[in-house]
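BACKBONE GEOMETRY TOKENS:
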Amino acid sequence: MSAHDTVAELADFKHLRETSSDVKKSFVVVFVMGMIFGVPANLLALVYFCKRQSNPASNKRYMTLLYRVITLVDTLICLLVFPLVESLWRISSHEDGKTNNAKISKDTLPPLPTLFGEPTFCTIWGLSWNVLSVLSVYLVGILSFSRCQLLLHPLSTLNIFKPALLLSFLTLFIVVEKLVAHLATSSFYKDVEYGFDRNLGVCYILSEENSSDYIIAQSVMFTILLGLPVLPIIGSFVVSVYKLREAQKRERKVKSGDSSKHREASTTVILITGMYILCNLPVLFFYMFIWVGGYTCFFKALSEDLEKQEKICANSSLEREELLVMSMIWIACYTLLILINSTLNPLIYFTRIKELRESLVKQRDTILRRFKKGDSRVEEERREEIRNTRDENI
């Protein structure tokens, strides 16, 4: 390769790095907006579902319990993006500095963020994010399959025990597997731990040996846990839409209040499922692209210093420019799309559930009345103080 070609490649990579910095700043904006809207919105929905009363043995009770867990998980996801805001902003600012200031060495790494720079916090955050992201997928799946079952068999009774057992097993499996990976001494688990990646700005499972087969095993596991469930959920979504249209046709002939409520509840679940599909199909496509395209070394090379290497993977045609683009897509799949899904779910609740809107209006009116009473009490005390002052002067 000639010197001219090398200079041209470095110039292209510099331009791509500038774009990467802009993309990360865009991610920061979305994260901040997700926190500002998602946390209070999900908390309000959680309070409503916790207060909603229903027969303990009814299907409504089953759905209420599912919604409680979903809103709790979505609230925690929206809270957990706070450290990402700091880390991505620092990294993008550092990349801007390297681009615009020639005095900054190319070998200079971005500064460690305050929160992710602490190993214990990084481990807790990484494990929590892994658990919550998987739970969010399977909660939507359970919700979708449950509503599909009711559409196919309206007289069936749903039992919360099996979904609770599945969610508990998934949580326990992820926690125990990561604990084994951290404590085991075999070559397969060599130097495996949660760490902060200064290039990506995320805490995730790393190995000091980038050739570690464990990294590939992790990628396979999360492809199965996060990517593949979208396929049966799409099937459930299609069946539910079909059965709902049939129910609408029957309602035109026989009007019934109960069937109308059943249809509205089904429509809400279908919208939540559709939102999940839109946010998670890119995850499946991305992982399939990596596996089918033979780019499995991408997972091993995520933490490589891209500016020091031309070829990232010895047995692949993956260039550093391609890895930079793929890493941005990976960050979006790993964090951004999950946050968007969790942020938009309460918007569906507010627009579809009339009782939730009425509950919010009552809470608002109660707060306003308390403020008015407080203002009137303060005004009355002020007047009383003026009268007492006048009496003393007299």
